[in-house]
Amino acid sequence: MTVNTTPSDDELLRLMRAGDEDALTTLYRRRHAGLYRFALQMSGSQSLAEDVTQEVFMVLMREADHYDATRGPLQAYLYGIARNQVLRRLERDRPFVQIVDEADEAESATSERLVAHGDPLCDLLRNEMIESVRQAVLALPSHYREVVVLCDLHEMSYAEAAAALSCAVGTVRSRLHRARSLLIERLRAARAQEKETEAGSNLLNTARCFA
């Protein structure tokens, strides 16, 4: 019988507190990609996401004793640190934050579930939808954006998201419901505008044919 010897996050944290540098390295490798995606999806800035990811583990090293396992898993605690760091940086740097031109590969992989693919045309449509969704998420107010990112893109439960955000489960549920409604409205409006623009372009081209 094979025994699973993979240490849990809490075990790695305990070892880290005891001075085990390998435990910190293992924890970083396990969680840094998700934290980076979260910061990127919240901010639209690759450089900000990189800085926030590094800062999360710096904070963990300084304040590991602040973690309380009874309030939620370590993963949620790390996302909570990342969330606070993102909001602080956005508040400070908002005029200078640039939205990335290309979707992050990991983010695209998550978003690809929304559409079918298999040929070049479908790939084009998929990329357009990914970009539309990404921009719509970034346009949400931060308290709605964070629940969409955590629950829909990172597939956290309401309880895990509530632990990360230090709020009640009911608050997460109500915010997520409202955020999804706003996303649908924004995506429908964007699609309607695209159709209107396309129709205007076709009408102009037709008029030129008879000019």
Q: Overview of this structure, please?
A:
This protein has nine helices and no strands. The chain has helices at residues 9-17, 21-43, 46-63, 74-93, 105-111, 120-139, 142-153, 158-165, 169-209. Helix content is 75%, strand content 0%. The chain has 211 residues and is mostly helical. The protein has two domains: 1-101, RNA polymerase sigma factor, region 2, helix turn helix motif (Rna Polymerase Sigma Factor, Chain: A); 103-211, Arc Repressor Mutant, subunit A (Orthogonal Bundle), CATH 1.10.10.10. Helix 2 (21-43) packs antiparallel against helix 3 and helix 7 (142-153) crosses helix 9 (169-209).
Which structural traits does this protein have?
Arc Repressor Mutant, subunit A, 211 residues, 2 domains, Rna Polymerase Sigma Factor, Chain: A, 9 helices, mainly alpha
Q: What is the assigned CATH homologous superfamily of the largest domain?
A: Winged helix-like DNA-binding domain superfamily/Winged helix DNA-binding domain
Kindly give the count of domains.
Answer: 2
Principal-axis shape equals: elongated
CATH A-level architecture of the largest domain: Orthogonal Bundle
**What is the helical fraction, as a range of percent?**
over 70%
CATH topology group of the largest domain: Arc Repressor Mutant, subunit A
What kind of sheet is the major sheet? none
For the secondary structure, the number of strands is: 0
Low-pLDDT runs: 96-118
> What amount of the residues lies in strands?
under 5%
CATH class category label of the largest domain: Mainly Alpha
Return the string of H and E elements: HHHHHHHHH
The quaternary organization reads as single chain
